[in-house]
Amino acid sequence: MIDREKTCCFTGHRPDKLPWGEDESDPRCLRLKASVARAVEEACVSGDRRFISGMARGADLYFAEAVLELREQEPGIVLECARPCETQADSWPAAERARYQSILDRCDFETLVQHRYDRFCMMRRNRYMVDRSRRLIAVYNGVPKGGTFQTLTYAMKQGLAIHTIDLEDFL
């Protein structure tokens, strides 16, 4: 049974909406990853022990990796990977598929929201995460459209504590 009062989920942008794209060696990306890691540590200090990542490319993977790093130092930290469908990573570049699989191999729980892709599976995955959490960490660019915006809006309606990392601070 998931203890919602000790659970934090994440939403954030994919590489096409990040100023550095796929160049994770960019200093702005490195600063963002450090900011995500700090937000995860703060959530842990506030009592969160379970973290849920939606496993999309970009910021979701940064979050999952930050949780895995924290778990090495902090006993009792749990990473759940919530996959929207079985084929989530099938069309990704090989290196990203390997990274995705590496995170799945190291996570504590893997949840498959539905077997087959349809146009609503990402939204269902996002709602699954929010409905089981008390806190949301969001990397957000301020644009009022897209999955990150929809997840953030849904989390606000559900009364989650929100920690927003403003992507504009990394331009």
Notable traits:
single chain, 171 residues, alpha/beta, Rossmann fold, six-stranded parallel beta sheet, 6 strands
Topology:
Layout: E1 7-11, H1 27-45, E2 50-53, H2 59-73, E3 78-83, H3 94-106, E4 109-112, H4 121-131, E5 135-140, H5 147-157, E6 161-166
Parallel strand pairs: 1-2, 1-5, 2-3, 3-4, 5-6
Helix pairs in contact: 1-2, 2-3, 4-5
How would you characterize the overall build of this protein?
The protein has 171 residues and is α/β, with parallel strands linked by helices. The chain has a single domain, classed as Rossmann fold (3-Layer(aba) Sandwich), CATH 3.40.50.450. Helices cover 40% and strands 18% of the residues. The chain contains five helices and six strands. The protein has a six-stranded parallel sheet with strand order 4-3-2-1-5-6, sandwiched between helices. Strand 2, helix 2 and strand 3 form a beta-alpha-beta unit.
